Structure formats: C-alpha cells, structure tokens
Amino acid sequence: MNKKFWLGIITALVLYGVVQVLLTTGVLDDVQRSMLLLICVNVMLAVSLNLINGITGQFSIGHAGFMSVGAYTSAILTLDHNAPFILAIIAGGVVAAICGVLIGMPTLRLNGDYLAIATLGFGEIIRIIMLNTEYVGGASGLSGIPAKSTWTIMFFFMLITIVLINNFIRSTHGRACLAIRENEIAAEAMGINTTLYKVIAFTLGALFAGMAGGLSAHTFYVITPGSFNFLKSFEILVMVVLGGLGSTAGSIVGAVFVTLLYTYLRDFPEWRMIIYSIVLILMMIFRPGGLLGSTKFSLKKFGKKEAKANGGIGDSSAS
Amino acid sequence: MEYFIQQLINGISVGSIYALIALGYTMVYGIIKLINFAHGDVFMVGSFIGLFSARYLASAGLPPVLVLIISLIFSMTVSALLGITIERLAYKPLRKSTRIAALITAIGVSFLLEYTGVLVLGPQAQGFPDIMAKKQYQLFGTSIQVESNQVMILVTTIILMIILQYIVRYTKTGKAMRAVSFDMEAARLMGINVDRTISATFAIGSALAAAAGVIFGMTYNSVDPLMGVMPGLKAFVAAVLGGIGSIPGALVGGLLLGTVETEISSLGYSSWRDGVAFAVLILILIFKPSGLFGKNVREKV
C-alpha cells in the first residue's frame, strides 16, 4: 500500500464524486448514465479477462459464458427468491467462479490454441444449456429484472475488482502467474504449481466476470442467451488486446474506448464489428503489446533492454 | 433399422461438408500451427460466389451440369485467391510473433469477412438457385431414400479428396508442403520456397472450403453472411476429432461428426446439436488430444 496506490484511490473517489454530482444535477442524461454503467461492467470484464489472458498467458475466449452464469444466477435470486441485491450479485460471482474451477481443472492441461477453442466450446455449451432450460426462460430469456444497479454500486464494484486483481498481480501469486506466461516449463522447474495457479487465475477471472454479468443484468432488465454469445467474448477480448495484454491500466482504457465506440456506433452495428476486427488485426501486426502494453516503461534510453526484460505477450517465446 | 440407416445417409452428406472444410483447417494447422478462424468465412464467401455465378449462368441458359461445374470451379478459384490474400496480408507479417497474436488476428479476419459480408450483401438469407432438379431414389425396395443431391455431394467430395491426395502425395508442391509441415527451417535450408508453399496450402484449403460452400448452398437452398460461423467451428471440431494435421483424419472426423449430429437431431434433441459437437471436442481434447489419427508429438523444451 504505497503512495501510488492511495493516489490512485483518491483519484478514483474524486472521479466518482464528480460524476455523482453531474448525475444528481442532471447534467448527464439517461443515455450517458447507462453508458457510464456499461463502462463499469466492461472494465470489470476486461480487467478480469486480462488476469487470465494477459497475466497468466492462458488464452480464454469464453468469458461471456462466465458472465452469463453470473447474470442468470443473480437475476433468478432477485426475481424468484427476493434475495438482497448485493448478495445476489456476489452469489452470481461465486457460482461463476465454481464454473471456472470446474472448467479450469480439466481444460487447463491444454495450452495455446487448444485451450482457446475449448473455452470457446464451453462458452457455447453454457449458452445452449441456457437456451434449452425452460426454468431460465429458454430463448426469450429473463425479463423484468429489477433495475437496481446504481452508479454508486457499479463504481464501487468496479473499484474493488481493479484493486483486488491488481493486488493479486503484484503478490507472490501474481508473480507465479507471470512466470507461467513467460515460460511454463521453466516455471514448473522452479517449483511453481502451474496447474494450481492457472486454476486460481481462471477462477478469479470467472468470479469477477460473474459479478459483472449480475450487475449488467440488473442494469438492462433483460437477459437472453443470445446476449452472451461468442461476439460478447470477442468484444471483451478486443478491449483487453487494444489496451495491451498484461496491463490492467490498458484493460481499463480499452474497455472505456470500446464502450464509447459501441455507444456511438449503436446504429451501425456492422461498422462496429468491422472497426473492431480491423483494430485487432492492425494491432497484432504493428503493435502487439497494445496501446499501454509492455512498452510502457521503455524510455528511449534503455528502451530495448527494458522491453525485453518486461517481456509482454508480444515477445514471450513462440514455441 | 431402416430409420437408422436413413439417418446415417443424411449424416454422411452433412459430414462430407464438414470434412471438406476440415481439410483446410487441418492443412493450415499442419503447416503453420494456426487455427485459421477465417476458414469458415472463406466457406461463406465461396458459397456466395457460387450463388452469383450459378444465377448468372442459369439465366444465360446453360445446361444444369455445366452450371454446376463452372460455378464450382469459379468459386474455388476466387476463394483460393482470397485465401492467399488473407495469408499474405494478415498472417505473413506475424510469422515470427506468438501464436496467440496469430490466433487473435485470425479471429479478427473472421469477423472482418463476416461483417463486410453483412454490409455488402445485407444480413438476410438469400435463396440458392436450384441448379439441378432434386430426385428421390428408393434403395433396394426398402423405405430408405437417397436424394440426388446427397449422391452429388458424396461424389464431389470423393473426387476432390482423390485430387487432394494426388497433389499431396505426388506433386512437387505436395512434397514441399509435407516437408514444410515436418520442419520449416530444414525445408528452407533444402531450398524449398516456404512462403510459396504456405500460400499453396492456403489456396488449396480455401478452394476446398469454397466447394463445400457451393454444396452447402445447393443442399440447404439458403446462404447468409454469418453462415460460416457454426460449420466453421464444427469443421474444426471434426479436424481435431480426426487428429489435426492428418488428411484422412479430417475426412473421418467430418463424417463421424455429421453422423453423430444427425442421429441426435433425429432423436428429437436438435436444439442440443451444437452443444454436443462442442462436448465431443472437449472430451477429445481431454482424453486424446492427438485425435483418432494424429501422432503423439512430444513437446519440445
């Protein structure tokens, strides 16, 4: 808990206060308000996916699956069982985390593209299960979910997510995850229990994705299986990659940017997807580290050395 | 029993389409270790090119067989060029970077093709012209029916497989492909033009996907810009099932997956069909990651 940490917290609280004042005085209208809530949800999703993809180097593209588990769980709790809102959100996160463990244990033996395709498969399986379960509304999904997400709740959930994940990354365990990203075999040889850490990263990522799902369900009243498809996973991936795989700050920037793009291109959905994909392709070709990736500290003077030492997904070994 | 065999026949015709797409996946994966997510969308593009050329040729009054053959070849050629272009522009600059970067790019290319398609062609499905009149045949006096389309699909698949097998086994390009997939560096040292070989692989794979696209359009009479997503993913499942990198594996995996899927649909669980395909994928990955025909490759340290 150094000076920098508290500076960040204070900045965040000031930001919160300013927006709160703007909301109560009515400077920001409803459209902008829902955009702000969406930004909070997307930041949670991007930061949690970054833990799996960017920090631990495991390529998961089924994040929307975890999100949907959280969304459905919390929506059912508040709709059918009158559970308190905060409790429902946390329960959604926990159930998603349990799914994360269940999915993580067998599949994390796979690596690289096989893991990617397996997580994609799991995301789709979850969607198809939701689609075929009458209890959760089948294809039409659940509607009439109480809109209980306020700016205050959203902001603090987002802040907690960022702080917890960032502290995890800086802890011994986070270092272990980084080691796995850089070289799994070497990490194992150094005595790191790679499977354990991969499952931990996967579970934590799923936990926060589940809570984000619950929050978004309580912001937009309606959830359908179709809203948690591969496109959604892809969108979260774009946020993380755009900001820079492995950088929490980058994920936040990416999430904000993509949400703005999403809101202002709402009437042109196909252009939105085309822009996403072109951004991804150009990013991978010309700046694989993302906007704020590993090159963050590479001042001209010792640029080359730093960039190499910091690694980043861009230069980790391509076996 | 007869019902079961009927479903088997239907399954084989669906499976042939998967098999043709899976071949492209398996060849590209075998050579540059990349899951070419855009492959399913090359299938879509191929289908649309087939649609447009079939419409044009049919209105020009050509006989049906000629319409089919010309549209098939035209669609395969254009898609082969598309495959080469994608490889040159998107994947070649990433040859030296991580596999994750290449995979992200492939997902990007996939979405680019899909939504450019939506933008240009509109999101709604379009009817595929009936090139050949569909006929039903009774089999050996039983109630089992075979459609002329299904026969055509199987014949086309087999012909293309034989051509492919010939190319890979006996031509110079095929030998180069096998050499590059075995060891890219060594192949380069032996004077093989690696870039050209990779382009050839993409060209052949894309051409096969386009053929599958035309056949798909003729079977289901409807094509749309997002139609490549599911068949593409399932063909990948088929490729993994058979053992990625193995050409007979892709065929067997495709046929197997098609059959399983049709049987599940016929049991009344058609809405679970896609889920089962992915469940098969995950089970295979966990228990036999090298697939049915794959070789076990030890990881190099």
Automatic annotation (TrEMBL), chain A:
<feature type="transmembrane region" description="Helical">
    <location>
        <begin position="199"/>
        <end position="224"/>
    </location>
</feature>
<dbReference type="InterPro" id="IPR043428">
    <property type="entry name" value="LivM-like"/>
</dbReference>
<feature type="transmembrane region" description="Helical">
    <location>
        <begin position="112"/>
        <end position="130"/>
    </location>
</feature>
<feature type="transmembrane region" description="Helical">
    <location>
        <begin position="150"/>
        <end position="169"/>
    </location>
</feature>
<feature type="transmembrane region" description="Helical">
    <location>
        <begin position="34"/>
        <end position="52"/>
    </location>
</feature>
<feature type="transmembrane region" description="Helical">
    <location>
        <begin position="85"/>
        <end position="105"/>
    </location>
</feature>
<dbReference type="InterPro" id="IPR001851">
    <property type="entry name" value="ABC_transp_permease"/>
</dbReference>
<dbReference type="Pfam" id="PF02653">
    <property type="entry name" value="BPD_transp_2"/>
</dbReference>
<protein>
    <submittedName>
        <fullName>Branched-chain amino acid ABC transporter permease</fullName>
    </submittedName>
</protein>
<keyword id="KW-0812">Transmembrane</keyword>
<feature type="transmembrane region" description="Helical">
    <location>
        <begin position="59"/>
        <end position="79"/>
    </location>
</feature>
<keyword id="KW-0472">Membrane</keyword>
<feature type="transmembrane region" description="Helical">
    <location>
        <begin position="236"/>
        <end position="262"/>
    </location>
</feature>
<keyword id="KW-1003">Cell membrane</keyword>
<feature type="transmembrane region" description="Helical">
    <location>
        <begin position="274"/>
        <end position="292"/>
    </location>
</feature>
<keyword id="KW-1133">Transmembrane helix</keyword>
<feature type="transmembrane region" description="Helical">
    <location>
        <begin position="5"/>
        <end position="28"/>
    </location>
</feature>
TrEMBL record, chain B:
<feature type="transmembrane region" description="Helical">
    <location>
        <begin position="98"/>
        <end position="122"/>
    </location>
</feature>
<feature type="transmembrane region" description="Helical">
    <location>
        <begin position="272"/>
        <end position="293"/>
    </location>
</feature>
<protein>
    <submittedName>
        <fullName>Branched-chain amino acid ABC transporter permease</fullName>
    </submittedName>
</protein>
<feature type="transmembrane region" description="Helical">
    <location>
        <begin position="236"/>
        <end position="260"/>
    </location>
</feature>
<keyword id="KW-1003">Cell membrane</keyword>
<keyword id="KW-1133">Transmembrane helix</keyword>
<keyword id="KW-0472">Membrane</keyword>
<keyword id="KW-0812">Transmembrane</keyword>
<feature type="transmembrane region" description="Helical">
    <location>
        <begin position="198"/>
        <end position="216"/>
    </location>
</feature>
<keyword id="KW-0997">Cell inner membrane</keyword>
<keyword id="KW-0813">Transport</keyword>
<feature type="transmembrane region" description="Helical">
    <location>
        <begin position="151"/>
        <end position="168"/>
    </location>
</feature>
<comment type="similarity">
    <text>Belongs to the binding-protein-dependent transport system permease family. LivHM subfamily.</text>
</comment>
<dbReference type="InterPro" id="IPR001851">
    <property type="entry name" value="ABC_transp_permease"/>
</dbReference>
<feature type="transmembrane region" description="Helical">
    <location>
        <begin position="64"/>
        <end position="86"/>
    </location>
</feature>
<dbReference type="Pfam" id="PF02653">
    <property type="entry name" value="BPD_transp_2"/>
</dbReference>
<dbReference type="InterPro" id="IPR037294">
    <property type="entry name" value="ABC_BtuC-like"/>
</dbReference>
<dbReference type="InterPro" id="IPR052157">
    <property type="entry name" value="BCAA_transport_permease"/>
</dbReference>
<keyword id="KW-0029">Amino-acid transport</keyword>
<feature type="transmembrane region" description="Helical">
    <location>
        <begin position="12"/>
        <end position="32"/>
    </location>
</feature>
